[in-house]
Q: What sequence folds into this?
């Protein structure tokens, strides 16, 4: 801030900022080491017997290759952070002895770590953590990131509803995921979804029922019916396409 032209006396000293951050990081590290987050989540799920949906909102992980903080030590990459939190939530649902009641999972901002084209990331452990969380889920809702689709592109999850909101998704990732789950998916909701890397569909088209029919290789449907989209912070108008047991589109009644 001083380098940007601010006066030095306008801001707290370096040591004041450092000590405040150090205390926060120390507390966070203690929560992880003692398993406090798992215990709190188990208690919370147990106290909410009618809970059916769990939402996870991800933010950018703190990474410092030169001098890891007390919080990030041992968990210094985005994939490690995601894996840890997915595992904690999954274990809490199972340990609360009511995991079967959670039939809907929402993932927001789940971005895979950036890597150069010559880098190969081993995301197998992260994939297993995500699959474990979704193993009994029937409704999967994704927003602000298509990374879960890319990670799960060839996994059959036995979900019957997929909702996508405010995303840019690669054509191949969406196509592979829908093909892998074609037998179970009966409902696809979408709002503000852009398709990329498709030579067949043109330059960055918006997802539509016609495009879904092309991707899923099913007969063309009539126009999708408007449906409320539950994306935050405001509900907006999206679209929903229903499919019958043979995966042929049918008119939505919502």
A:
């Amino acid at each position: 801030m001083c380098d940007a032209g601010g006066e030095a006396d306008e801001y707290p000293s370096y040591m004041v900022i450092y000590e405040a951050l150090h205390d926060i990081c120390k507390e966070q590290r203690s929560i992880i080491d003692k398993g406090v987050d798992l215990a709190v989540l188990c208690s919370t799920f147990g106290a909410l017997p009618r809970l059916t949906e769990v939402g996870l909102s991800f933010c950018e992980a703190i990474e410092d290759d030169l001098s890891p903080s007390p919080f990030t030590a041992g968990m210094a990459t985005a994939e490690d952070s995601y894996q840890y939190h997915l595992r904690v939530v999954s274990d809490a649902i199972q340990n609360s002895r009511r995991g079967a009641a959670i039939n809907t999972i929402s993932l927001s901002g789940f971005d895979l770590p950036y890597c150069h084209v010559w880098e190969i990331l081993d995301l197998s452990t992260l994939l297993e953590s995500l699959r474990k969380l979704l193993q009994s889920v029937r409704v999967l809702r994704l927003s602000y990131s298509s990374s879960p689709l890319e990670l799960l592109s060839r996994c059959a999850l036995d979900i019957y509803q997929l909702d996508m909101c405010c995303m840019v998704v690669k054509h191949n990732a969406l196509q592979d995921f829908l093909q892998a789950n074609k037998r179970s998916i009966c409902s696809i909701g979408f709002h503000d979804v852009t398709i990329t890397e498709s030579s067949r569909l043109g330059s960055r088209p918006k997802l539509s029922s016609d495009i879904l029919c092309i991707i899923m290789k099913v007969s063309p449907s009539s126009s999708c019916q408007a449906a409320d989209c539950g994306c935050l912070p405001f509900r907006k108008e999206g679209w929903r396409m229903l499919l019958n047991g043979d995966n042929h589109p049918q008119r939505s009644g919502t």
In short: The chain has a mean pLDDT of 81. The radius of gyration is 21 Å. DSSP finds seven helices and eight strands in the chain.
